[in-house]
Design a protein that fits this description.
- The complex is a heterodimer of chains A (328) and B (335).
- By secondary structure, chain A is of the alpha/beta class.
- Chain A has two domains: 221 residues, 3-Layer(aba) Sandwich (Rossmann fold), CATH 3.40.50.300; 72 residues, no CATH class.
- Chain A contains ten helices and twelve strands.
- In chain A, strands 6-7-8-3-9-10-12-11 form an eight-stranded mixed sheet, sandwiched between helices. In chain A, strands 2-1-4-5 form a four-stranded antiparallel sheet.
- In chain A, strand 4 and strand 5 form a beta hairpin.
- Chain A is globular and about 70 Å long.
- Chain B is built from eleven helices and twelve strands.
- By secondary structure, chain B is α/β, with parallel strands linked by helices.
- In chain B, the strands form two sheets. Chain B has an eight-stranded mixed sheet with strand order 6-7-8-3-9-10-12-11, sandwiched between helices. A four-stranded antiparallel sheet of chain B has the order 2-1-4-5, with helices on one face.
- In chain B, helix 3 packs across helix 4 and helix 4 crosses helix 6.
- The longest helix of chain B is centred in the middle third of the chain and has 18 residues.
- Classes of the chains: A alpha/beta (328), B alpha/beta (335).
- The structure holds adenosine-5'-triphosphate (ATP) (2 copies), iron/sulfur cluster and magnesium ion (MG) (2 copies).
- The site of one magnesium ion has 3 residues of chain A, from helix 1.
- The site of one magnesium ion has 3 residues of chain B, from helix 1.
Amino acid sequence: MTEALLEVTDLKKHYPVRAGVLRRQVGTVHAVDGVSFALGTGETLGLVGESGCGKSTVARSVLRLVEPTSGQIRLDGEDITHLSKTALRPHRRSMQIVFQDPFASLNPRMTAGDIVGEPIAVHGLASGKALEARVAQLFEQVGLRPDQMRNFPHQFSGGQRQRICIARALALGPRLIVCDEPVSALDVSIQAQVINLLIDLQRQHGFSYLFIAHDLAVVAHISHRVAVMYLGRIVEIADKDELFRNPRHPYTQALLASVPVANPLAKKLAPLIDGDVPSPVNPPSGCAFHTRCRFAMERCKTERPALLDAGDGHQVACLLNEGTGRGR
Amino acid sequence: MADTSDLVLDVRNLKTVFFTNSGLFKAVDDLSFNVRRGETLAIVGESGCGKSVTALSLMRLVPDPPGRIVGGSVTLEGTELLSLDEAQMRAVRGNRISMIFQEPMTSLNPVMRIGDQIVEAVRLHRSITAKEAHDIAIEMLRLVRIPEPARRAREYPHQLSGGMRQRAMIAMALACRPALLIADEPTTALDVTIQAQILALILDLQKELGTGLVLITHDLGVVAQTAQRVIVMYAGRKVEEASVEALFASPMHPYTRGLMASIPAVPASGVPAQARLNEIPGTVPSLVGLPRGCAFAPRCKLAIKRCEAEYPPLADWGGGHLAACWRAEDVAEVA
Ligand SMILES: Nc1ncnc2c1ncn2[C@@H]1O[C@H](COP(=O)(O)OP(=O)(O)OP(=O)(O)O)[C@@H](O)[C@H]1O
Ligand SMILES: Nc1ncnc2c1ncn2[C@@H]1O[C@H](COP(=O)(O)OP(=O)(O)OP(=O)(O)O)[C@@H](O)[C@H]1O
Ligand code: SF4
Ligand SMILES: [Mg+2]
Ligand SMILES: [Mg+2]
């Protein structure tokens, strides 16, 4: 990649598990366990994987909302991993986040206009009439009417609330927007409106998205590239089309096969893996997927597969076929 | 008239209303449908369209107040449920008609062992010994593919994973071999790989036991992969009903059509990166003070004057494909 906006290298976030009255540490949650990826300008990288695999932790670490245990985060080439609050402040403007629950993330006692205008006022970028005009413009950009600025969050529908959150994220002219399940709480017909809005805004402003969702179809739709996580690690990353047409990691293959296709003539649901995801407290050794993998070999139990190039810009972490995963 | 001998459930003109601070509204309005032995009927529609209230009405579990069933009939294996008294209904509930939920803890008791809960459910309806009931419980846990069922039976719900709890709830719901199982978003909270396991399990058991299944979901993918017949609800009403093949091949209601066009597909082969999705403009209406005419009219591209004035009748457009739309015949022409 020539001009990476965001570069994450070997990111780890571990949480201690404590128990007993003395709160002694009895284990470690390997929430994120060595994640590396790069995100280009104007690009959307989708991050998928099952509940608890570490997607939100990656998102929050990138924004420095949680402090990584180790690893490096570079924004525009500058290492921001250890910047102090003040040193980080100019970068805060470039990175914004949109969360899943549009209701929980809005202050119920503030008007929609104040919510959207707050970051602008806090950064002292505009006030008075200029601020109001800027907020009105943001409202229009996300498909809300400027006269709705005086309304409170409860007067908006779920989809409209998510538009407010997006307008707020846009307020400071960010270059990176992290979307953590931005449409998961919305009805299907409203979901499409918000996805279209995100796509349109990206075309207009050229910013990058790190887009998290558990709905593979939504991710497939909006992303240019997709990374699949399992138990704190990226097991596969590739261009969207390549990943969905030629998945090479047995976990990705199982994940895709589990998605119910909205076509009654297409082949019926065939679960390819049994059992549940193991706990991220003391995850399995070697390849973390070996306990559920149909193709696991003896060495998978001990050797941790690295994320290796499998051709066509496709990277996979699987020991099969000299580290290039399984073809289908 | 089709053969009705294997009809398990027959719902006619069901109407359930709520009396709330903001006014009275019909959560379920004039709803009719039926389910045969071994058949899966899916009910789809967006949040608040009345899917769960339909399910609760069939179970006679609508909270009263604020809700009440005010009309229609619900016949289960020939028995009219709406005229049973509460004691008679208790003998039917969990026995001939069972329900599973999105959140298994709604039906599992957190302080009781899994096995004991199934034993209790079975002995409520059958006069058998504790030993016999215990054997049934273990057998049910085996049937839902819980490994080491005898050991798991002695565990409490919190000791099981989400997927395992869902299985335990299914075991309990099916322990009395009900004629009808209602599954209200049974896999919505689960990860997709676990969802695939649970759906496959429900369908296998249904085949094995001949249970009629009402599957409530908002996921059209789940519908396509599980159901034989589908009803689409919008604002408390059935707006379309068809075989699953007919519904996906040629949806006749503009809402159904819009819904299908608005879901992204996986894999997106051939689709250029980031194509725009079709949107249904506007939002789902509030049930209080619904317009007189078609509830979808304000969001519908095809709406004409008549749509706002008169509610369209549910008409049969051939082969049991029902749709309530003044312009059903024109839907296919408009993309
Ligand atoms: N503050 C914390 N303390 C301890 N453990 C944590 C903390 N935050 C997250 N975890 C654990 O880290 C793991 C990864 O969590 P994370 O929220 O990143 O997952 P996720 O992929 O976003 O899941 P979901 O799809 O459910 O949102 C989980 O096992 C979670 O329980
Ligand atoms: N106990 C209640 N009191 C008042 N209104 C209720 C109650 N239960 C349901 N409703 C209302 O009845 C309508 C239908 O609700 P229902 O729960 O059946 O929707 P649903 O289709 O199951 O939606 P979802 O997909 O969100 O589960 C909604 O407007 C809801 O707010
Ligand atoms: S490395 Fe081994 S266990 Fe892991 S996915 Fe590949 S084959 Fe399966
Ligand atoms: Mg998360
Ligand atoms: Mg519901």
